TrEMBL record:
It is an enzyme of class 3 (hydrolase). Its cofactor is Mg(2+); Mn(2+). Coiled coil: none annotated. Belongs to the DNA repair enzymes AP/ExoA family. It catalyses: Exonucleolytic cleavage in the 3'- to 5'-direction to yield nucleoside 5'-phosphates. One of its GO terms (molecular function) is DNA binding. This is DNA repair nuclease/redox regulator APEX1. The active site is at residues 175, 214, 312. Residues 40-54 have a biased composition (Acidic residues). It comes from Pocillopora meandrina. Probably binds two magnesium or manganese ions per subunit.
Amino acid sequence: MPPKKNKESEGGKGKGKRPAKKNTADDGEPKSKKAKNADVESEESIEDGQDDGDIDYACASTSKKWNFKISSWNVNGIRACLKHGSTLAYMKNEDADVFCIQETKCPEKDIPKEIKLPGYHTYWAEGQTKGYSGVGLCSKVKPINVSYGIGISEHDNEGRVITAEFEDFYLVTAYIPNSGRGLKRLEYRQGWDKDFREYLKELDNKKPVILCGDLNVAHKEIDLANPKTNTKTAGFTKEERQDFTELLEEGFVDSFRHFYPNKTKQYSFWSYMRNARAKNVGWRLDYFVVSERLVPKLSDSLIRMRVKGSDHCPVVLLLAI
């Protein structure tokens, strides 16, 4: 059954490609049962007082040319995030062709007008539970088609997925279910992972796919600060990690690890507890996963670790398309 269609709201006329240039159910993000001991080891710190002011938003670390940029950010409540003064500044400075937003926690009618950026077509999916989940997509280029959910009613009542079809690819932004404290939702999560994988495979049979968002899994030990103390924590169970491996085995690529297979201390989520962000005791939960045949078009995959406003930071994909 195809996902249901909703109306878009437009912030202005779409623009073409830029010139080439160099939780009720979720219970929050991953936390160890051993709260006193987990996530306390200090990794390489993120220097105090240094935010996004030193970021070169136009440059790819790889020095490859690019002409299309996608930003993905779990804002952990869009209204709360906007109260952080740097959020709109980040979006202006990043100037992405597409912004994908997760965990808006806001019905579409209450989305702040500031986030409906001029020149962007905007789309929002909301869950049935007030103040929970929700995703958004803002694009300069008007998509050919936009759909909501994955076509399975069991999964489509929490506002977790938007799919935008463009000329050369499908862009899917997703907020994947958290298995919850005590892993009480792990069985549901495994079912979700299987169904979502099949959904992505169906899209991939038609066009290449770019999946972005908070996927709520740290795939390898390198992807979190304290793997040894978190093996039974939501986001790092063997089941969730295996599900992610199976997705990659279906012909998809973790874009960040494609460019930086051995780079350590690279995270996109930090608990608000125990000064975790300042110590860089984090998790890499936010991804761009792409069809293998898109890899030649990738220019870089970046984590904006210094951008604040949420317990997550944005991740960015640069392409030459």
